[in-house]
């Protein structure tokens, strides 16, 4: 969810070994006024974990009836339905979801509300939303373990965004790097307010489900940092004894989520520029492998992708970003360790390696493409999945939203 991807979790002893938590936070509980600089975007990203964060809103968690120790941590993530889902979306997010759904309480959604922050094709939005949902399932998301739904089908996302907006200093939003970059490209006169405020919607997506962890790429750290600070700010302004005096539970309103960053695959780069992230918005389709690309198109894109003139192949040479990117893609697709890839490929020339990478990509993506076609041909199936996912998500979201309305002093609605 830079703009494409979002999610959340907290790594304790049961966390997946594939992921390393970064950023530490235990959630402040103030007995007096907080430091003057608390609500500024100042937390450095560290690679440490200290504590399990604020625990609240127990009604929104999966709790075993027999043992309180069996509470599952929650992960939420999503991908925008703009353009085709590509290899960067898959390796950086969706592929990692499959293992997480066995360990965590997982909710995966299609972030269609984020898709309208820049000009978009109105006729394509609905179709792209369905396609993205089908790709989730085709990649292995299991609806018996994870809830799959469309963001706009759970209205609490927008409601909470408005409430959070009232507590978000505008200076925080003006500092967001992606806003600066995208507004500069579009021109200030053509930029909608949503481009400025979408990080608040992203925070709503995360905080609404009392998320423990958020799987994020390198380019999404700043958005999660804002979410964490906004959670702390709202907890201080409206939580604790203030909330209890209004008849609420008291304590923290939101959990302060922790990031999970995959050790590899968090940032898949363009096939035409190893210094730029693979993106749906890139003008050239040659820059990305789409999950539904036919095998001849995959072969053509790999054949034409940018390489270099250095001998042999190697990871982590700053002068060879394309080499590092292509080897990383092969490592993830083939399911091998970095050491295994080095041993196999370090003496290869580009022609030999490109053939190897092409075959690996085609073999890996073929079953996904077959399953996608089966899902799209099953009339009504996808609609049922999305409706059930939205129902389950709404149960959690509505409980959080009720708490926020109460803590902020709104008159309770009588049915």
CATH class of the largest domain: Alpha Beta
Count of discrete alpha- or pi-helical segments spanning 4 or more residues: 13
Structural class based on helices, strands and sheet pairing: alpha/beta
The helical percent reads 40-55%
Q: Which ranges are low-confidence, i.e. pLDDT below 50, for 5 or more consecutive residues?
A: 1-69
Number of strands: 7
| Cα-atom radius of gyration | 22 Å
CATH 4th-level superfamily of the largest domain: HUPs
**Structural domain count:** 2
What's the average pLDDT? 83
Strand content: 5-15%
| Overall 3D form | globular
Q: Would you identify the CATH architecture of the largest domain?
A: 3-Layer(aba) Sandwich
Biggest sheet record: 4 strands, mixed
Description:
The protein is 44% helix and 7% strand. It is of the alpha/beta class and 415 residues long. The protein has 2 domains: 74-265 and 379-408, HUPs (Rossmann fold, 3-Layer(aba) Sandwich), CATH 3.40.50.620; 285-377, Tyrosyl-Transfer RNA Synthetase. The strands form 2 sheets. The chain has a 4-stranded mixed sheet. A 3-stranded mixed sheet has the order 2-7-6, covered by helices on one side. Strand 3 (74-79), helix 1 and strand 4 (105-110) form a beta-alpha-beta unit. The chain starts with a strand and ends in an 8-residue tail after the last helix.
């Amino acid at each position: 969810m830079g703009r494409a991807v979002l999610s959340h979790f907290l790594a304790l002893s049961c966390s997946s070994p594939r992921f390393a938590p970064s950023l530490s936070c235990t959630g402040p509980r103030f007995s007096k006024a907080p430091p003057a600089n608390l609500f500024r975007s100042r937390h450095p990203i560290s690679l440490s974990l200290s504590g399990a964060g604020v625990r609240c809103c127990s009604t929104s968690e999966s709790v075993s009836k027999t043992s309180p120790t069996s509470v599952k941590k929650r992960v939420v993530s999503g991908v925008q339905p703009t353009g085709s889902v590509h290899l960067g979306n898959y390796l950086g997010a969706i592929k990692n979801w499959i293992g997480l759904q066995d360990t965590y309480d997982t909710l995966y959604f299609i972030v269609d509300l984020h898709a309208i922050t820049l000009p978009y094709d109105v006729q394509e939005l609905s179709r792209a939303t369905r396609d993205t949902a089908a790709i989730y399932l085709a990649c292995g998301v299991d609806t018996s373990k994870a809830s799959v739904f469309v963001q706009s089908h759970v209205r609490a996302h927008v409601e909470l965004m408005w409430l959070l907006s009232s507590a978000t200093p505008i200076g925080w939003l003006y500092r967001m790097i992606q806003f600066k970059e995208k507004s500069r490209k579009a021109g200030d006169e053509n930029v909608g307010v949503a481009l400025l405020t979408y990080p608040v919607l992203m925070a709503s997506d995360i905080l609404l489900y009392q998320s423990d962890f958020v799987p994020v790429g390198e380019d999404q750290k700043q958005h999660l940092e804002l979410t964490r600070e906004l959670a702390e700010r709202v907890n201080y302004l409206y939580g604790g004894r203030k909330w209890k005096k209004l008849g609420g539970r008291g304590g923290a309103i939101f959990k302060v989520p922790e990031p999970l960053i995959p050790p590899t695959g968090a940032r898949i780069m363009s096939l035409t520029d190893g210094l730029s992230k693979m993106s749906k918005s890139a003008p050239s389709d040659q820059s990305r492998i789409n999950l539904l690309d036919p095998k001849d198109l995959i072969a053509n894109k790999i054949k034409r992708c940018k390489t270099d003139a250095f001998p042999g192949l190697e990871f982590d040479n700053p002068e060879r970003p394309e080499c590092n990117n292509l080897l990383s893609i092969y490592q993830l697709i083939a399911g091998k360790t970095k050491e295994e890839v080095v041993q196999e490929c370090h003496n290869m020339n580009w022609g030999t390696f490109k053939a190897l990478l092409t075959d690996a990509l085609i073999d890996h993506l073929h079953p996904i493409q077959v399953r996608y076609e089966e899902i799209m041909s099953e009339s009504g199936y996808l609609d049922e999945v999305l409706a059930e996912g939205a129902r389950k998500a709404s149960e959690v979201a509505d409980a959080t939203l009720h708490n926020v309305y109460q803590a902020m002093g709104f008159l309770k609605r009588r049915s």
